[in-house]
Structures are given as structure tokens and as C-alpha cells.
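User: Show me an example of a complex going from sequences to C-alpha cells.

Assistant: Sure. Here are the input components:
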Amino acid sequence: MGTTGTPEMHRADAADEMRLIARIRAGEQQAMSELYDRYSGVVYGVVLRVLQDAAAAEDVLQDIFLQLWRKPDAFDSSRGSLAAWLAVIARHRAIDRLRQRRPETDLEEVVIASGTDLRDETERTLVIEKVRAVLAEMNDDQRKALELAYFQGLTHTEIADKTGEPLGTIKTRIRSGLQLLRAKLA
Amino acid sequence: MKTHEQFADDLALYALNEMSGTELREIKQHLDTCAACRRELQSLRNDLGLLGLSAVGPRPPVRSKERLMRAIAAEPRGSSSALSPVGAPRRTFWLAWVPAAIALAAIIFAIGLKQTNRSLNDQLAELRNRYNDQKIQLTQAQEHMRLLLAPDAVHVSLTPPKAGKQPNATAIVSPSQNRMTLMASNLPPVPPGKAYELWVIPPQGAPVAAGVFKPDEHGNAMMLDHRMPAGVQAKTFALTVEDEAGSDKPTSPIVIVGSMGEGQ
């Protein structure tokens, strides 16, 4: 599948990702460079969406990859997808920054279930399109509740105050929104 | 204290880092003991990761990577910097390799130790998870036992609705008085000239006839305060269909049977 003058492309699989993490664990800087090329877009996209500030987003991006360099074992490569794990970490760290508080989540604490395979960039792009389609499919209230909680870091109480809806309704919307996402991507 | 369902309802809040104070402490304690909630939390985090992917698009500026790689180079760890000295002059004199070889051996040993440590940590985490799961299973088993041994526990037999009513009978026997009462129900009607015959079967020896009777149109029958056959140690009771005059020995299959000591 390789083309003249470009490095040969290959599908990233689980073993490939585990090898990459193992190389980082062994202190190989080139492996970190490859990991950054593969996933910096995921981290930066999430962080920028939360912070709406490119300079601040760069700082958080830097901090997350540096943390991963220091603690490569924080991610359990035998389990969930590194892309999804990084997206969760990115969201949490960006919200911490937004709220001007110290990071509240240790990398090791975030354990995710093995779900959709996001290692291969082509497949990841397809999943991203699916996620956006599911969000577009949701009713406005449900999507708004999810976005306020996830990207703006508002608590359920703050969302209830902002929208004038009962707290229970907000909880239900967020929960059912995530359930819908899971069902559609299963 | 919250119930499992209440904790399960709040898992999305926890996954979004929205909890604090007592709520946070309680849900963490619950997660330590609830494998189902731990699994659901991991799935919710995967959902949140997928949701985050919807924001993918803008790429970080090139300088970001340069900055990161500079920062990484400033804090090398593991063996890479020692094994791959960028631009370091090559020494040809063999003695120069001795300290390098010692250093390499030390590094390999350190890596080995680190990997062993990591492996032990993984095993510890796995054992902790298994311990928590088994603790939950033990609690569930204890709950089951508590139900089974409850003084007010009632046993209810359920049968398929189409199975129809099964013939049954209860015999109340007093060996000291040599008397008994039999109450039967749901007995199928007997052909003309036939009747049910009660048999008393001793622990050893042949069945002894103990009386004949015919059920009413609803299949019910009673032998009240009935004298037991003399000199027979009753152990088992059975009903067969015989001539209405009675038979000396059973000539048809047993309809129902029961022994003393059963069903008490």
C-alpha cells in the first residue's frame, strides 16, 4: 500500500500500539514522536474545544504527552483504546485548567473498557463521523446537556440552573445520551 | 446509605469528575466493592472518550511537537539515552567498552527489576479485583442463605399451567393407636366396578390391603379414623386401582405413593 517517496503506511493494530507503549516505557524518544503524530490531533481537538484558547490548549497538550512520557504505564495497553483514554484525560485536564484548579485525576485512575477499535486512523475517522451523526440525531435538549457537561464542564446543577430544567431531567438526558452513543457505536 | 441503583445512577457524574465531598467518598467506597459498577464506569469512560472524538479536527501547530520533543530530551529516562548517544564520538579502544558494558548490564538489570515490579503490580491489581469480586459473591451467597433459613420462609411449588392437577393424598398415622386418616384429592375417576385400594407396605415384606374407596365426582376421598391392618409395621402407603371388592395384592400400577418421614 506504500507509495513512492512516502513511508509505507500500515494499519495500526493492538500489538502495534502495545509495542509503541513498550518502546516509550523503554525510554525511546522516537516512539513518543510517533505516538504524538498519531494522537495529538485527538488530544488537541478536545482541549481546544473546551478551552477555546489555542495557547492554553498547547500547554495542556504538552502537559498530557509529557505525563505519558513520565508514566507510560498509566495506560493499560491490554484494555481500552488509547485514543478514547487520551480523549478522556484531555477533557478532564482541560476542564481542570478552565476551572483553574489543580489536576484532579491521576492518569492511572482512568481505566476504560475496551470498546471501539480506534487504533487505525481510517477507522478512527469513520468512528468520528458516526459519533457526530449520533450527536446530530439527538434532540437539541439532549445534545445541549451533553455538550454543557462534557465540553463546558458544567455540573448537573449548573446545567439545571442554566436551562431551567429539573436536575433529574438533566441527569437523565446525559445518561440516555451516552447510552444512545454506546448503542449506535456497538 | 445509598442503594446500588442510586450509585449506578450517579456513575456518569463520577465519570465526568463532577462529584466531591461525601458523595465522592461514598461512590468510591461503593466502587471498591461493586464489580458491576466498576465495569459500567469503564464503559462510561469509553463513551466519554468517543464523545470527545467529535471535537477532533484542528491540528496543533508544528512548534508544539518541537517543544514536546525538547522537553522529553531534557528528561531522558530508561535506557534510550545511554544506548543511543546521539552524536557521541565512537571509542575504538576495547577498554573503553568495559565501563559501558558494566553500565549496560546495570541498566538491563534495572529494566528487568522494573518489569518484574510492573508485573507484580499488575498481578496485585488483578488479585485485588478478584478479591473484590469474590467478596461480592460471598455477600450474595450469605443473602441467599439468610432467605432459605428464614423462619417465615414459605415453599411454593410452581407447575406449568397446562399440567393439570396431580392426584395427591395425605395420610395421618398413629402407630400407637393403630389408626389412620387418609385425605385424597384430584384422583382420576375409576371405571365401573373398580375402586382405589390403599396398601400399607412394611419395611420388608409384601403390601397389605388397608381398605377400598371411591372418590367423589371432584376426585376427593377421605378415610377417616381408619383401622390399620393388625400386626403390620407401616412404612409406606400406596394407592392402586383394583376391583371394588378389594384385592389381596396390588394388580395395577401405583397411582400415588408416600413413605413416613417424607415431606415433613
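The lines above are the inputs; the final block is the predicted structure for all two components together. Residues 14-115 of chain A form a domain with the Rna Polymerase Sigma Factor; Chain: A fold (CATH 1.10.1740.10).
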